[in-house]
Design a protein that fits this description.
Membrane topology: Multi-pass membrane protein
Number of domains: 4
InterPro entries: Ion_trans_dom, VDCC_alpha-1_subunit, VDCC_L_a1su, VDCCAlpha1, Volt_channel_dom_sf
Number of helices: 26
Main location: membrane
Shape: extended
Strand content: under 5%
Radius of gyration: 38 Å
GO molecular function, one term: metal ion binding
Distance between the termini: 57 Å
Keywords: Calcium, Calcium channel, Calcium transport, Ion channel, Ion transport, Membrane, Metal-binding, Repeat, Transmembrane, Transmembrane helix, Transport, Voltage-gated channel
Largest sheet: 2 strands, antiparallel
């Protein structure tokens, strides 16, 4: 008997119903406590001040936050559209963008002032400058105001647009609230202290090898081959030395060439051991494993092939193989700790919810028990009511007998339907047993490998008969895989089939293959689109991952980490955008330092080219050549242009050694 019937019976008997316990308020998950605001901001504005109340309402209004994010995005677009020109030249678009910068500066200044009025400046916890992101915003706003003031007062004002590129960091204030991204951010931030220790160790190794290189190779890379009459340097200069010691011999190239010491050195004098700074830069380049063999061979050409290889081999083993790989160990360890903490927090929240549910259930059980205590008093009346209901139901059943003759005609159809359902279940059971059998498993694997082999036979200028054979086999395999999908859908049912992620992938591949066949034969799409659609055939190779246990486990492991990987990709994209915009401001239009040769492809003259150049440096491929061009763009090693290497070193360390290693930490 239900609780409602018990209460009704108790009311009819005149028994006082026990008081119902008040419902408990549900526990809100993730609810944030109200902010603890100071009584006064800027020593004069109280919480009741109308101006401060208005500022608090505005800065905590969600649309205002979206407006600021939209402004940040628009500011990044304006920085990306800006086209840098050599010699401080400009065009009308750049002038228009310069005027828009004033609008952005006003918006960010208003945001800064309103937050200071709402939260205070710095004197108490929770103040504006106590937040790291607010500190970054405040710094950028102040620098922008100083730049604008100097630009208006001086004709050639101080340009700080390079720092404005850091505004793209502001969206991290919101994306850091995403749990997976928060794990990545916390892991990287918590790893800063041990990474600093590793940085000191790397610096120690670089200093030691720079001092050794300074003692051994100082001034040894400035001798090259010159013509003995015209004193013209050879077209492809390289270091030379005393032939008897095994060094490069100029007379071996041409008898009229002599080895002389009037050359600036390899890479416009950047790669050498002439002073401590350039020696450290050369050692760091060798530790990154990019171009270290070129430095080794230059030293051997200058001094001979004797013992110099021991210096470079030991440097690579100690610096690159040992010390630099410690970064991966630190990041992996910190990420594992943060993941365990996040898991522990999740388990704790689940335990709290379970305890809350058990407490609520205990209260309701007590209430039901109290209601059941008064049930015997009304049981007799309830039985009497059941007896009356039984008599009335018997009368109604007698009336229904008259309509049974009409239903006999429908019984034949019901019998046929039951037979059909019974046979259908039997066939589905047999099909389900077949698709789960070992023979079906090996049949699909063989078909996948045969399909892969046919796809691998395609080549340039293949004969016509091979085209016909590939088209026929494609239709054959599409038909077989369609039959496999249909058989699984029938045996497992639509709901049971689409529960599996691999089955959904198979369905996508089959539908894509059928669509590719239709579009190819009807000539609806252009040849390029057809070529792209034919790539769907290659996805059939991945069907083997469903049946190969080890590959299936590997794919499942990657899918479990996909949320963290997506969060890291967002961080990586923001990092690339920031350094691309920064590179445009610093090096845009400056890589045309030598008009006699073609401008390097890796440059920062446009946003998209800058993105590609930053990504190239991030991967470590020929990053030192881009650094050489950046140093020459500012006058080379003979001036302060050598400081341009700082940009490339920071980009390489933060991108290649930290962010890219986090991918391995997540996968592990």
């Amino acid at each position: 008997m239900s609780v409602t019937n018990n209460n009704t019976t108790a009311e009819q008997l005149g028994v006082v119903k026990p008081p119902q316990p008040p419902p408990k308020r549900p526990v809100r998950r993730g609810a944030k406590p109200p902010p603890d605001r100071p009584q006064r901001a800027l020593f004069c504005l109280t919480l009741k001040n109308p101006l401060r109340k208005m500022c608090i309402d505005v800065v905590e209004w969600k649309p205002f936050e979206y407006l600021i994010l939209l402004t940040i995005f628009a500011n990044c677009v304006a920085l990306a559209v800006y086209t840098p020109y050599p010699n401080s030249d400009s065009n009308s678009t750049n002038a228009y963008l310069e005027n828009i910068e004033y609008i952005f500066l006003v918006i960010f200044t208003v945001e800064c002032v309103m937050k200071i009025l709402a939260y205070g400046f710095v004197a108490h916890p929770g103040a504006y400058l106590r937040n790291g992101w607010n500190l970054l915003d405040f710094t950028i706003v102040v620098i922008g105001m100083i730049s604008t003031t100097l630009s208006s007062l001086l004709k050639d004002g101080f340009d700080v647009k390079a720092l404005r590129a850091f505004r793209v960091l502001r969206p991290l204030r919101l994306v850091s609230g995403v749990p997976s991204l928060q794990v990545v951010l916390n892991s990287i931030l918590r790893a800063m202290v041990p990474l600093l220790h590793i940085a000191l160790l790397v610096l120690f190794v670089i200093i030691i090898y720079a001092i050794i290189g300074l003692e051994l190779f100082s001034g040894k890379l400035h001798r090259t081959c010159f013509h003995n009459v015209t004193m013209r340097m050879m077209d492809d200069p390289k270091p030379c030395g005393v032939p008897e010691e095994g060094a490069f011999n100029c007379s071996g190239v041409d008898i009229n060439y002599i080895c002389s010491g009037y050359w600036e050195g390899p890479n416009k004098g950047i790669t050498n051991f002439d002073n401590f700074g350039l020696a450290m830069l050369t050692v760091f380049q060798c530790i990154t494993l990019e171009g270290w063999t070129d430095v080794l061979y230059n030293i051997e050409d200058a001094l001979g092939r004797t013992w110099q290889w021991t210096y470079f081999v030991s440097m690579v083993i100690l610096g690159a193989f040992f010390v630099m790989n410690l970064i991966l160990g630190v990041l992996s360890g910190e990420f594992s700790k943060e993941r365990e903490k996040a898991k522990a927090r999740g388990d704790f929240h689940k335990l709290r919810e379970k305890q809350q549910i058990e407490e609520d259930l205990r209260g309701y059980l007590d209430w039901i028990t109290q209601a059941e205590d008064i049930e015997p008093e009304g049981e007799e009346r309830a039985n009497h009511q059941d007896h009356k209901n039984k008599n009335s139901s018997e009368t109604e059943s007698a009336d229904r007998l008259e309509g049974d003759e009409g239903e006999n005609q429908e019984s034949w159809w019901m019998k046929k339907k039951k037979d059909f359902d019974r046979n259908n279940r039997r066939i589905r059971r047999s099909c389900r047993k077949a698709v789960k059998s070992q023979g079906f498993y090996w049949l699909i694997i063989i078909l996948v490998f045969l399909n892969t082999g046919v796809l691998a036979t395609e080549h340039y200028q293949q004969p016509k008969w091979l085209d016909s054979f590939q088209e026929a086999t494609n239709i054959f395999f599409v038909a077989l895989f369609t039959m496999e999908m249909t058989l699984k859908m029938y045996s497992l049912g639509f709901q049971g089939y689409f529960v599996s992620l691999f089955n959904r992938f198979d369905c996508f591949v089959v539908i894509g293959s059928i669509g590719e066949m239709i579009l190819t034969r009807t000539n609806i799409m252009p040849p390029l689109g057809v070529s792209v659609l034919r790539c769907v055939r290659l996805l059939r190779v991945f069907k083997v991952t469903k049946y190969w246990r080890s590959l299936s486990n590997l794919v499942a492991s990657l899918l479990n980490s996909i949320q963290s990987i997506a969060s890291l990709l967002l961080l990586l994209f923001l990092f690339i955008v920031i350094f691309a915009l920064l590179g445009m401001q610093v090096f845009g239009g400056k890589f045309n330092f030598n008009p006699t040769i073609m401008k390097p492809r890796s440059n920062f003259d446009s946003f998209w080219q800058s993105l590609l150049t930053v990504f190239q440096i991030l991967t470590g491929e020929d990053w030192n050549a881009v650094m050489y061009d950046g140093i020459q763009a500012y006058g080379g090693v003979s001036s302060l242009g050598v400081l341009a290497c700082i940009y490339f070193i920071i980009l390489f360390i933060c991108g290649n050694y930290i962010l890219l290693n986090v991918f391995l930490a997540i996968a592990v």
